[in-house]
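hey m, so remember when u said the tokens were messed up on ur end? i reran from scratch. heres the input so u can diff it against urs
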Amino acid sequence: MDFFSSCIALNGSSRPFGNTKTLLNKIEQILEEPHTSSIPIVDLCTLNITPYDYLGRNSGDDFLPLITRCIKNYSHIIFATPIYWYTVSAHTKIFLDRFTDLITIHKNLTEELIGKEISVVASFAGRNQETLLIMKQNVDTIFFNFCHYLKMHYKGSYFAHSSLEEVNTEELKNFFLKIKA
């Protein structure tokens, strides 16, 4: 099975056709066929995924069907997120928080997460290199610890300015070829 057919991308932007989606589309252009023809993109903002609830009152929302689909059909999840205030978007954070459901309620699915891979592509608006380093470190720390706790593999992140003028296509292509290895 081709690596890219085992991937799903979760777009955490509040705009399904914003800069983050444009970045995902740019990835498809850079990697070209046949690599990306089968990477589904799910726009989290179009789903009803509510914050974690200790009483489980949100069990009927869209989280469980989506995470079950991810676990059963894909070995690699690409989180695509804009960066807001030095961290991931609210849609991405809520989705990550809901993994608590797997740990507390759907424990059988937690075991199926072991060995799955995660990578991140992020769009950001700032141009200050020091700020970019802080954002990247924050995001990498979140996902590294998340993966470590769930016995998953964090494959890294790629950051692109939201204008997408400065996307180094060779660097982006190399990032995906590296996580594929």
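this time it looks ok to me. The chain has a mean pLDDT of 89. if urs says something different then somethings off w ur setup not the seq
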